[in-house]
Design a protein that fits this description.
The chain has 155 residues and is mainly alpha-helical. It has seven helices and two strands; from the N terminus they run H-H-H-H-H-H-E-E-H. The longest helix is centred in the last third of the chain and has 26 residues. The protein is globular.
Length: 155
């Protein structure tokens, strides 16, 4: 349990950084897709929110806290169109921290009692919600790295 508490904390700290990027970076910078890149800062931020919900909640047999439109637009394999509405940006900003806090609460309550096994594109097989929570940390770290690279190129 202590290991997962740390995983929740690290995820929350990462999300606080993403929230800061989302709130303090000009919209045109968030949306820019530089040459040699397939996505932008905005897509990476929204993508980690959607992916955490899919990996932990959907595969964990629980209702997701994100709507289907957001999932379709930011799931694995989706490609950003270089646009974002103020509503979408606000929605993602309002999901960044609460989705991690809720995951921690729901895990403590024991809500995840089944899991649909899934092999990720990184060839890691997730067999439990614990596997998903830990893998999600790795996934979010990859996207933080992508965001930092994008920031260097677009700034």
């Amino acid at each position: 349990m202590a290991t997962l508490e740390n995983a929740f904390n690290v995820t929350l700290q990462n999300r606080k950084r993403l929230y800061k990027f989302l709130k303090e970076t000009p919209k045109e910078v968030l949306l820019q897709i530089p040459q040699g890149f397939r996505n932008n800062i905005w897509w990476n931020i929204a993508h980690v929110v959607v992916t955490q919900q899919l990996l932990v909640y959907k595969l964990g047999g629980q209702p997701m806290q994100v709507n289907g439109a957001l999932v379709e637009k930011f799931k694995k394999g989706s490609i950003p169109d270089g646009t974002a509405t103020e509503e979408e940006m606000e929605q993602v900003a309002n999901l960044l921290l609460p989705t991690v806090e809720r995951m921690q609460e729901d895990y403590r309550k024991g809500l995840f009692n089944g899991y649909t096994e899934y092999t990720t594109s990184a060839n890691v097989t997730l067999s439990s919600v614990e596997d998903a929570i830990i893998f999600n940390l790795y996934h979010e770290g990859l996207h933080l790295g992508a965001i930092l690279s994008l920031l260097k190129v677009v700034s």
